[in-house]
Amino acid sequence: MKLFYFTDPMCSWCYGFSPVLKKLKENYPEIELEIIPGGFSPFSKQTITPEYKEFLEFHWRNVNLRSGQPFDHSMKFATEAFHYDTEPSSRALAVIQTIVPERDFEFLSLMQTAFYVKGKDITNGIVLAGLAERIGVDKSVFFKHFNSEAMKQKTIRGFQCSRNAGVQGFPTLLTMENGAVNVVTRGFQSFENLKVSIDGLIRKMSLSDSAHGPACADGFCEY
Q1: Which H or E run contains 5?
Q2: Transmembrane segments in this chain: where (predicted)?
C-alpha cells in the first residue's frame, strides 16, 4: 500500500504530527510513504508582527498540548528580514528527495527541530545547507541543486499536486488509487486513532486486491 503525505516544514501541526508519522513508519514498514511538500505559504511576504507572533503562539500552544512537541517561543528566527515563506524549506526537502530520497523524513524532522526548537531561520539557504550536511550531503552539492531551475519547478509541482489532490490543510495523508483520492487523515491525529484507520484501510485494500488485482497510482501527481 502507498500513502501520500502532504506536509510543510513550517507547518506547526505537521511538526506535532511528526512523532505519529515516525511510529507509522516503524510499525508499518510494508507501507510505502511518499512525502510531498504541499506549500503552506510559499512566497509569502508575511513578517513576524506582534499580531502574527500572537497568532503563531496560539497554534504552537495547541500543538504542544495535543502532541507534547516542544517549542521555543522566543522565535529567534524572527528578524526584520524574515518572511514566513515556506518555499525555500520545501525546495530543500525536494533536493534531499532527489539526492538521498531514503533520508527525506529524517531531513524533514531536522528542519522542524531547527525551526521550532532552536529558532533557526529555515528560509535561509545557508541554514538549510548546514542541515543537509548533517545527513551527509555536501554543501556545494546541496546548493547546486537548491539554486537550480529544475528544483524550483519540482517544488512548484509539489504545490500543484497538493491542489490537484484537493488537500485543504496540513498534515494530510491520502491514498490515490486509479485516480481516486481517499483521505486517510486530515489534520493532527494520535497514533492510536491513526492506527485504527490504517488497519481498516489495509483490510479493505486486501479484499479489493484479491477481487480485482492491485491498483496503481503512479504518475498521479507527477511530482
Answers
A1: strand 2-7
A2: none
- For residue 219, what are the CA distances in angstroms to 156, 161, 176, 177? 16, 11, 10, 11
| Ranges assigned E (strand) in the chain | 2-7, 32-37, 172-177, 180-186
C-alpha cell at 29: 514498514
> What is the C-alpha separation between 154 and 143, in angstroms, rounded?
15
Cα of 39 vs its chain's centroid, Å: 9
**Amino acid in position 45:** K
Minimal CA–CA distance to 63: which of 190, 173, 186, 214? 190
Q: Is 118 helix (H, G, I), strand (E, B) or coil?
A: coil
Q: Which residues neighbour 212 within 8 Å (Cβ) at sequence distance 6 or greater?
A: none
60: nearest Cα among 47, 48, 70: 70
DSSP 181: E
What are 163-176's pLDDT values in tens digits?
A: 999 998 999 999 98
- Counted residue by residue, the chain has a size of 223
Helix (H) or strand (E) holding 59: helix 50-67
**Residue among 170, 135, 120, 147 at smallest CA distance from 11:** 170
pTM for the whole structure: 0.92
Write out pLDDT tens, residues 71-98.
Answer: 999 999 999 999 999 999 999 999 999 9
Question: How many Å apart are CA 156 and CA 34, to the nearest integer?
Answer: 16
Domains of the chain: 2-212 (3.40.30.10)
Name the grid cell of 154. Answer: 519540482
